[in-house]
Structure formats: structure tokens, C-alpha cells
Amino acid sequence: MWMLLGFMFILYLGHLYIWAMVVVIQIYMAKELFSLLRRAPEDRFLPGSRLLNWHFYFTAVLFVYGRILSQQLVNTVIYDKFLHRILSAFIKYQMVICYFFYIAGFMWFILSLKKRSYKYQFSQYAWTHMILIVVFAQSSFLVANIFQGIFWFLLPASLIAINDVAAYFFGFFFGKTPLIKLSPKKTWEGFIGASVATVIYAFVFANILGRFQWLTCPRKDLSTSWLQCDPGPLFKPEFHSFPGWIPEWVPSKGISVLPVQWHALCLGLFASIIAPFGGFFASGFKRAFKIKDFGDSIPGHGGVTDRNDCQMVMAVFAYIYHQSFVVPQSYSVEIIMDEIMRSLNLDQQQALHAKLGQILHLRQFGL
């Protein structure tokens, strides 16, 4: 209950606080996973190895979140000219700065190699990079979803939670057929029942969330002010009449649906069919290393990683789906001109160039 209430309070505070929550979750996940394969005897002879892991981690943080910033975002919160100049320079040279931070860590690792510890040190180096790719890179998509609108963060996250709860209850009351050997307690009855419940929940909950501008408006700056925007056609109700064979005694003649609810069905299908494999992967990983939980950060629940294994998979899909099927396609002038030129023969292209040249010449003289 305290986790749920805390989560709702952070949602109320807004985008920046949700981003901060995601960063804290990422740090805890990294801490749990960095400690998973460590062996105390080797670490005694390798001073600074833990610090090196965190050096690579915060280099990744600087690279990924530095790219989320832009001049427009900085202008909204930075008024001091000197600080604004520093941040503007960082944004411009961010890739170079992060590259040299990484190279510094790489050189640090090479210089720290010691005899009889090569295998252990290289395994830790590989493990650190796997954490950055599999955990940090995926969870960073959560932040991108937040700034597209809290709706695109909250709906996918809640789908995973509902699917997990529904799978437990359907499996407890109806489960008889084992689903997968990695998780003996998982059953086909629980999996199928949770899938149906998750899809229904996605369709209904999307209608509720889609009616609040605070949740649907994208955040285009780093302020915490209240959001107002045109929600767009996705969040404007459309009335669908029932077919003629519906009995006349039915009080309503149709149903009001937000177009985004159809997208929510796709997210619900993914959350119920594909995302659970993130949990199966985590279960297999824990069995391989003979551990019950990734950590003990949350009393009674294990580690933060145990609570967010499926969330990582879902966050990536939600971002890719939003960018592919929801965000309207935009075309630059260069792309449009290129398409026009491809449809013309050589004489037509020359005539078009001549005409454009005349227009530009006249505009230079204000005609």
C-alpha cells in the first residue's frame, strides 16, 4: 500500500518527479546486479573495481539523459547567462565528453588488470556492460515515454502490474496445467485468464486516463507548471452506433470510444503475451545462479529488479509502438523535394529548377 500511495503521489507531482523516480529505480537495479556476481576474496585485491563499475554506469547516464536535453529545455529553466553557456556547450559537445569519459574508464580497467585475476576482472567488465545494455538502456525508454505524455508511461506500467496480479489469481483458483519449467507455479489457465483480463483492462483504463490533459499532454520543457494542450484526435471521443441486431430494450444506441483505446488493445496484447517472457528470463537467470531474489531492497518483495523485470520489455515496446503508429509522420522540405524530383523527367526537373530560381530572385528584391 505504501508503494502504491507513493507512486500515485509522484504521478501527481508530474513529469520531472516521475523521471527522478525512474533514475532511483535504475540506480537500485544497477546496485543489485553489480553485487550479484561479486566475490569478496577477489575484490580485496582489486581496489577501485566497484568505483569503476559506477564510472561506466554514470557515463551511460550522462550520455542517454544528456541527449534528452535540448536547447529548448534548457532555456525554460536556466536564466543565469554563465550557467546557460556551460549547459549549452555541454549539449553541443555531449557525445565527445561522454566518449572520453568512457575511454578513461576503459584505460582505467586496462591499467588495473592484475595477474591471477584476469578472468574475474574481464567477467566483471562484461557483466557491467550487459547491465548497461539490458537494464539501463531498456529502462531509459521509460523516461522517453514520460515526456511523450504520462499516459504513455502509466498505461504500459499498469498493464504489467494488472497482468501479474490477474495471473496469480487465475492460477490460484483455476491453474492445473504447467506453463513453463522455468516457473513451475505458472499455469496455462493463469496465463490465458490474465491475458483476457489485461486486454479488457487496457481498453477501459485507456478511456479513463485519456480524459485528463495532465496525463495526455507531452512535456516540452523542464518546468513543473500545469499542462494545457489540444489533446489531438486520439483523445477525442468518437461515437460508434450498435448494429441493428442489438435488441431495442438496450438503453444505449452506441458507445463512445477514444481512438487511443484501440492502440491500448495492442499494448494490452503485448503486456499479456510477450512481456511475461521478461519475467521468465529473470527466473531462468536466478535459477542459473541459485538465488531466490536479486536483492532485498523491498521487504517482502525481493529486490527492485524482481519488481521491474517485465517493465523493461514493456517500456521498449511502448516507445517503439508510439513512435511507429501514434506519432504523425513528419516530412522535411528536402524529402518532399526529393519525392517530387523522382516523379519528373529531366526536362521537367530543369523547368522546375528554373521556375524556383526565378521565384527566389524575385523574393530577394521584395517582389
UniProtKB/TrEMBL annotation:
The keyword Transmembrane applies. It catalyses: a 1,2-diacyl-sn-glycero-3-phosphate + CTP + H(+) = a CDP-1,2-diacyl-sn-glycerol + diphosphate. Pfam families: CTP_transf_1. It comes from Dipteronia sinensis. The keyword Amino-acid biosynthesis does not apply. It comes from the Eukaryota. One of its GO terms (molecular function) is phosphatidate cytidylyltransferase activity. Its EC number is 2.7.7.41. This is phosphatidate cytidylyltransferase.
